[in-house]
User: Fold this.
Amino acid sequence: MPESDENIRLEIRHVLFIDIVGYSKLLVEEQKERLGQLTSIVLGTAQVRDSRDEQLVRLPTGDGMALVFRHSPEEPAHCALEIAEALLKHPELPVRMGIHSGPVSEVTDVSGRTNIAGAGINMAQRVMDCGDAGHILLSQHVADDLIQYRQWAPRLRDLGECEVKHGVRLHLVNLYAEPLGNAAIPQKFQQTRQKPVAEQSARRSSVGWIAALVLAAILAASGVYYFTHRAAAIPERSIAVLPMTNSTGDPANEYFSDGMSEEFISSLSRLRDLKVIGRTSSFQFKGKTDDSKTIGDKLGVYYCSKAACGNRPIGCASRWS
Assistant:
């Protein structure tokens, strides 16, 4: 093995990728002005200003930059919100951001300086590329880490999957804290869900029948599965399958009830025309007493489902109510 390969050391870092939307369409003078504005804003954030050189690496990317943090995914998330707050005073500067935690390694560039490269950087850029101006998008990996904390959970909105280069599909989450960020569904997600008119016509009935069969199977096997209507502003084809309540009092049955919920989420997620909230977002309400309307508003879905799971003397049958 070449010596250069032997010396490669991968480390997990937390990357915030930033770019200026529409940068290539600007005049050269405007590009310099906008990039100078963005650089000044980024350098003024507490996360960047207070960090030491070994704690943060700044990488210019031409139309923006990548910030590589060492300790926690909270660092790029805090930094992104600080940048978004500063951008409120600069409507002429449309910026989008993406955050991912992944492997990176030190490399030596042509000038002999130590730099950072790796899959963590590339994936953060792909996450960002799925957004529009104002969006702060997170990879599912980062969202799973942040959603465990009270200050972050209410700010995360599950977007589902977005197709990027080479047919790769990324499950992404929107970080939004009014008025910071962009609450709208990114255009790339809408384009992924849209089909040519002919294809839509051919698929509409089949998708409807598949959805009906899946829900009918759930009802036939489990009893009553009820839905609560959401506000008209929320996409109608959207649902959150909330974790089942273990009504048996037996802790061992908790695995069964969670597994059933996950299976229904997975099955419904296969329907391309149906937005299904992911497990991470749905399961944050496990054991909570929030009503369906409140949960639906928080998750941004048209329908919510709730159920209680029990057992019977024979087999692993369940009862829903």
In short: The two ends are 62 Å apart (CA to CA). Residues 13 and 310 are 43 Å apart (CA to CA). The chain is about 35% helix and 25% strand.
